[in-house]
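Human: Can I borrow your eye for a moment on a structure tokenisation matter? Separate attempts, laid side by side, tell us more than any discussion would. Could you pick a protein and write out its sequence and tokenised fold? No explanation is needed for now; the record alone will do.

Assistant:
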Amino acid sequence: MTAVVTAILTGGREADLFAATPTGLVLEPPTTHVRGSGSAPVAEVPRLQPPEVSHEGTTTRIRAGAALTLLRVPAAGTARSSLTGTWPGQQAPLLLASIDQAP
């Protein structure tokens, strides 16, 4: 949860993917992209509390100082503080997660 909240609040992106080869690690080109909407410095990301999790249909809500909503089925639309993603066959960004209220 900390990684998702940090990505949302700081404008983070997907992690780099490396392949191990006989000559060392090789950076693989990404096929899936995620991007957080924020621009806060990492130092301003709050420490999270132990999470409380609830499920409602295809939505999972996690409360841990921030009210994070994870969508098990990506949705169209945007949110103020959000994480969106694209992948092969899905070129328009879809909402994957959002913070309902900033900590």
User: Anything to note?
Assistant: The mean pLDDT is 87. The chain has one domain: 2-99. Residues 2-10 form the longest helix (9 residues).
